[in-house]
Amino acid sequence: MQQAGVDPLPTYLEPLKSPQSKKYKDAKKYPLILGTGNRSYYYTHSQHRNIDALNEQDPHPLAELSRNTAKDFGIQQGDDVSVSTDRGTVFMKASVVDCVADGIVFVPHGWSGQANANLLTDAQCREPILGYPDMKSLMCAIKRVEISS
C-alpha cells in the first residue's frame, strides 16, 4: 500500500452515504444503515432455489432488523416490508432479531426478482483506495407494506 502511495495503516474513512456524511443529502429520507449479503444456510448464492425441501426450510427472503428499529417503524415479525435506497426497492418479510444493532437493516443476497439485493446497491459508491463497491453501509428506509398474492 505504501508503494502505491497510500497509508499502509488502516484509516477510517466515513462512507459517502452515511448518517454522518456531510455530502449525503438524503439522510432523512433513508435513515437506516443497510447491510447486504446475508447468507442462508439452505442455499448457495442463487443456487438450489428450485429444491422443494430447501424452500420449506427457507421460503422467503428476510430483512433482519432489531426490536427497537421494528418498533420505531411499526413492523412486526413476519410482516411484508419494502426496503428502499436511492437506487431501488426490494420486498421481503421482516425478521425481528436480537443480533442486529438498532438502526441497521440486513438483507440477504441470492434472491431474484423483487427481492434481489442488487437493486439496492450503488456500484458508483466505492471505497476510494481499492474501488470495492459499498455494500455494507448504504442508507435505506424500511416500511410495512401489503403484498397481494
Describe what this molecule looks like in 3D.
- This protein is mainly β and 149 residues long.
- The protein is built from 2 helices and 6 strands.
- It has a 6-stranded mixed beta barrel with strand order 1-5-2-4-3-6.
- Strand 3 and strand 4 form a beta hairpin.
Measured by DSSP, the beta-strand proportion falls in: 25-35%
Mind summarizing the main beta sheet?
6 strands, mixed, barrel
Average pLDDT works out at 85
Which overall shape is indicated by the principal axes computed on the Cα atoms? globular
Q: Helix and strand succession?
A: EHEHEEEE
Query: Could you tell me the number of beta strands?
Result: 6
Order of strands, main sheet, comes to 1-5-2-4-3-6
Q: Spans with pLDDT under 50 lasting ≥5 residues?
A: none
Structural class: mainly beta
Gap between N and C termini: 52 Å
What's the helix count? Answer: 2
Radius of gyration: 17 Å
Summarize the amount of helix as a percent range. Answer: under 10%
Characterize this entry briefly.
The chain is mainly β and 149 residues long. It is 8% helix and 26% strand.
Tags for this model:
single chain; 149 residues; mainly beta; 6 strands
Describe the secondary structure blueprint for this structure.
Blueprint: E1 32-38, H1 52-57, E2 62-66, H2 67-72, E3 80-84, E4 89-97, E5 104-108, E6 138-144
Parallel strand pairs: 1-5, 2-4
Antiparallel strand pairs: 1-6, 2-5, 3-4, 3-6
